[in-house]
Amino acid sequence: MAWTRPAFGGNLMATIQCPDARPQIGTIRPGVFKCCEPDDSRTAPIVKEDIKVGDGTVRTRLIERISEIAGGLTVDLENAEIIVSGGRGLGKAENFYLIRDLAEALGGSVGASRAAVDAGWIPHAYQVGQTGKTVSPQIYIACGISGAIQHRAGMSGSKKIVAINKDAGAPIFSVADFGIVGNLFEILPVLTREARKIKTNA
Q: CB-based contacts of 148: which residues, under 8 Å, 6+ apart?
């Protein structure tokens, strides 16, 4: 059996073979595959096994369940329909209010690039990318994110990608459906204002 997984920061795909060890279990990250439409006509066999494990065999126990929390709120990027993400282009942590304002106006969630997280501007729970969350929202808006391959690996499954960056040659534009080349500090307030107008008139 062969398994394929990203390696070296997503720069290549490695095929792993395990010819001897059994059983084998493969795991995938949330958001990697699209959900199928429900089909009630499909059936599958259910096999019930009677498994008995003695108390002396089990060496692990559940102590506590902890939800991923940032700033007092549970972060659920995998199920978000709209994500507005900020990157290094924001310049500092205080400027994330621009991302939060637009996300709130659109009814979406806040995301971030690894650069913003590494800079300490926002908790890791918001990170989108290979070392963060893999997401596939209806709309993904990347603001001030250059688009390193590790970030693209985590959001390229989005249905519509909007990129806002002052660098017309930024890699993020290679995966974007819509691109805006310009200053995010001028663009985001306009988008937020228009989104609020639409919501008010709806």
A: 113, 114, 129, 171
Task: Provide the token pair at 22.
Answer: 């059994």
Which burial class, exposed, middle or buried, applies to 87 when counting CB atoms under 10 A from its CB (0-12, 13-18, 19+)?
Answer: buried
Assigned token pair, 185: 């500090």
Q: Please, what are the domains in the chain?
A: 76-201 (3.40.50.1220)
The alpha-helical segments, DSSP class H, found in 79-176 are 97-106, 114-118, 149-155
Alpha carbons 9 and 139: distance in angstroms, whole number: 25
CA distance 105 to 194: 9
Q: Give per-residue pLDDT as tens, 136-194.
A: 999 999 999 999 988 998 998 899 999 999 999 999 999 999 999 999 999 999 999 99
Per-residue pLDDT tens digits for 36-92 = 888 999 999 999 998 888 878 888 888 987 665 555 555 788 889 999 999 999 999
- CA-closest candidate to residue 83, choices 133, 131, 37, 119: 133
Q: Is 135 exposed, middle or buried (0-12, 13-18, 19+ CB in 10 A)?
A: buried
What is the rounded distance in angstroms from the CA atom of residue 154 to the CA atom of residue 175?
A: 12
